[in-house]
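Annex B, item 7. Sequence and structure tokens for protein A, then protein B.
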Amino acid sequence: MRHTLRIVALLVLVALGGGAYWYFVKQGGTLNTLLAGKVPSPGGASSGTPPAGGPPPTPVEALPVKIGTVSRQVTAVGSLLSSESVVIRPEVAGKVSEIAFQEGQAVKKGAVLIRLDDSIARATLAQAQASIAFSRAELSRAEELYRQRTGPARNREQALAKLQSDEAAVQLARAQLEKLTLTAPFDGVLGLRKVSVGDVVAAGKDIVNLEAIDTLKLDFRVPELYLPTVRTGQTLKVAVDSFGGRTFDGTVYAIDPLVDVNGRAVVIRARVPNSDGSLRPGLFARVALTLDQNPNAVLVPEQAVSAFGNKQFVFKVVDGKAVQTTVTLGERRNAEVEITAGLQPGDVVVTAGQLKIRDGAPVVVVNNKPAGS
């Protein structure tokens, strides 16, 4: 008898539990409706609006999508180079008689930098000039005799050849004299000199380096994968360790037609303005090259995006309901992600509370308000 009563009591408890599960979970019933004797209609929990006395809307945080500019970039490392760079070297041997510059000085094109001893060259020029004066007189005398038919044409031709030879000797002496004065070939900043007054220098000896740094060159490499997307005119940002937190703008102006076979990389050269002289040639540079820009990109906070398998989705708020929407992601930047498909300008997406809602669930937007509002 007692065994039978226990079985009956167990069956009654199972029936009550099943009824409670059906009422509260499946039909969305509440204790108030139960006490009032009302039973929710089948399917009420999944209908467009919650039934009277059903669960209240779930509070969530939501924001409208943002429209902004998104840039697709590739990062690389490179080196800064002088726009123009040369080491001043003499073409002829000689003794340094004058140094006409200060180390680190900015100079203009044509400014005198070094003078070598020119005493022998000047004497050679004077000798050639004296010889040419005599040759002119000889030619004049020979032409006069030739006109009077008292002198042979051979003498006239010899005098003319001697004059031309002396004129060439004068030009040679002047050229040798000019080579003893070294000038700046372009505007730039001088480096550290390697000679002193009185040094006897050989032809080709390093004197001082000259660098044009108002605009710098930047050489860097990107993988060959980006070859179809790189082109001249693209902009880039340059960062160097010497100026942490500061970036410099640059523009691509040349792409090497030869792909490096060792690293399978494309060599790119850009110009970086340096009017204040902050940057110096030889610095290690971190480059962010902008490949393309989308000025009307749809952006949402990263926390608004959820993943299910290999798909990404967000919850839109439409007429007080949560609508699960599959989206395609683009670039990420500053805790925001670009949505390339699935959302339109004006859509409102849930940014917090996604775990408490499902597709079609009623929601109410309760965003955190600033203090004092």
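Protein B:
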Amino acid sequence: MQALVKLKSGKGNIELLNVDIPNPSENEVLVKVHAVGICGTDLKIQRGEAWCNPPVILGHEVSGTIYSVGDNVIGLKAGDRVVTETAQIICGHCYYCRTGTYLMCPDRLSIGYGTNGGMAEFIRIRSDIIHKIPDSVSLDCAALCEPTAVAVHAVFDSTRVTSTDIAVIFGCGAIGNLVAQTAKSLGATVVICGIGSDERRLAIAAETGADYTINLEKENLKEVIDSLTGGMGADLIYECSGSKDAIHTGMNLLKRKGSFIQVGLTEATLEIDYGLFTAHEIRIIGSFGHNWGSWETAIKLINNGKIKTKPLITNRYSIKNWEDGFTSASNGNEMKILIYPNELVK
């Protein structure tokens, strides 16, 4: 089968190779991949800026159809349309595994960089992290279940969201957009921010339900938030860009006793306005990845139309044209690009 493989660490070192189709163990399923999204992590691995476990097949935003199942697999069968979580290898017995937060497991290896991922014709996955999707959800839209589950975890599990909240989202890429849609699904008024090069993404945010889309290079965000809150400040800040400037701005836009949720990956060390913790009694909460429940909620929200993933798919490439897809994703003008390891479906 064709597979996109990171052969060794460092910049580049990615090739499209012919490799053996994997054999699932007794507790795994073999999935024929329909589509896989290009994530920022994939781009960082390409640039040599993120850890991976080479040689390894890239791709962790996967949708497809079960091709075969192992002998001990229950509740799944060939032909089921599915998506997959990412934690392929966990210890299974630590505190985090036993409490359902297995992405915190010290031994975790995730598909697409720790173990072989979905940028291949087939992928084998342990059955415990497989989720079936309803027939009413297309496999294209389902390929965005992973970033949707990230957004759901950030919004549902971090702090209470109410219909009177003003939620500001920094970063209008796929995660920022999906966080905005998720907060909107709970009734919050949503303000999403970008910069000059994000005009296309901001337009998609408006299409998918954001109440206010702000180009930070043209508009005064503080004036907007003051007008919406009577000068109190935002109830919730979701920082999805990882930008140091956005973190500083967001912390100072937050109302007293507000909540700041860090979703985007940042530099290892940052200076922040630490005095605001006590002076304003703010809460800063880190959100990483997803859990089993956030996947089930994500699938329901996509199925009932409260989260729209189709408008986020801005380009599609066959796996043989993966370099064009990665280049396009790196340019920052796209929202989500799908790679098709088997047949490109327009």
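Comment on protein B: Residues 151-286 form a domain with the Rossmann fold fold (CATH 3.40.50.720).
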